[in-house]
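// run 5 | inverse folding | seed 20
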């Protein structure tokens, strides 16, 4: 008998909405305190400065609000777990949008406008609303889950580049961790390796002998923020293992060929 098809993960829509709004607010508060020297630093994300990265985060919120203001699409084409594999082709387009955003208004004005527009549009639209997006049409509920990945990873980018300590919302970290773990399982289906990211996710992946009981022979375990860094290319697998940020046991417990999950 073939194995049962895994049920798609569900998310608490109200908690995800609140987490996205709160995380954007944390970033907005921090960006308002950055000085010229911090804004000019390299962000570590492509060739962006901290100012350009901050503009991109404002664009994340503003473009979502703009998408909700457009007429809805008919049916969704992508689910949340498929989103990480649809983003690579848009890197140049997104970078150009970030540049245009920064040139359009001072950063503080960008954040004020984006925050206000986002709050207004989220209040007016249900999770079932289908957004017409560059990457493919998605429901608002699914797309908001992807925004947790963007906001968490870029909050972490800002913290490291500018020496900040912007808080990361627990629900945003949880949703982003789960989405990227499920994307790994989709990318490399199987049951020979168990990936544990406590307290938020456990997935099995990679073809091979399936574990059924007792301690799995191939286990990878890490913390949520390290996982998000690995899955988005911020941290190298070998370095994370060497620094004991990842614990990997078993001959199949090497995810280096599968990382990053998204680029």
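// decoded
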């Amino acid at each position: 008998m073939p194995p049962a098809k895994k049920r798609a993960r569900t998310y608490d829509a109200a908690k995800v909405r609140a987490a996205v709004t709160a995380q954007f607010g944390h970033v907005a508060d921090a960006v308002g305190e950055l000085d010229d020297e911090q804004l000019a630093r390299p962000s570590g994300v492509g060739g962006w400065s901290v100012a350009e990265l901050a503009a991109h985060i404002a664009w994340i919120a503003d473009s979502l609000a703009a998408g909700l203001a457009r007429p809805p699409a008919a049916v969704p084409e992508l689910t949340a777990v498929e989103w990480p594999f649809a983003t690579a082709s848009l890197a140049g387009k997104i970078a150009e949008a970030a540049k245009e955003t920064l040139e359009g208004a001072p950063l503080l004005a960008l954040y004020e406008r984006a925050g206000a527009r986002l709050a207004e549009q989220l209040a007016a639209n249900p999770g079932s609303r289908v957004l017409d997006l560059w990457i493919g049409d998605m429901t608002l509920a699914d797309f908001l889950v992807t925004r947790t990945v963007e906001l968490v990873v870029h909050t972490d980018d800002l913290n490291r580049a500018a020496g900040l300590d912007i808080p990361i919302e627990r629900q945003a970290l949880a949703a982003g961790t789960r989405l990227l773990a499920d994307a790994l399982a989709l990318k490399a289906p199987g049951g020979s390796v168990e990936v544990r990211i406590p307290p938020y996710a456990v997935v099995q992946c990679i073809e091979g002998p399936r574990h059924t009981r007792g301690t799995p022979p191939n286990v990878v375990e890490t913390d949520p923020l390290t996982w998000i860094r690995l899955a988005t290319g911020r941290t190298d697998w070998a370095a994370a293992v060497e620094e004991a940020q990842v614990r990997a046991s078993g001959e199949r417990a090497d995810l280096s060929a599968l990382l990053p999950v998204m680029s």
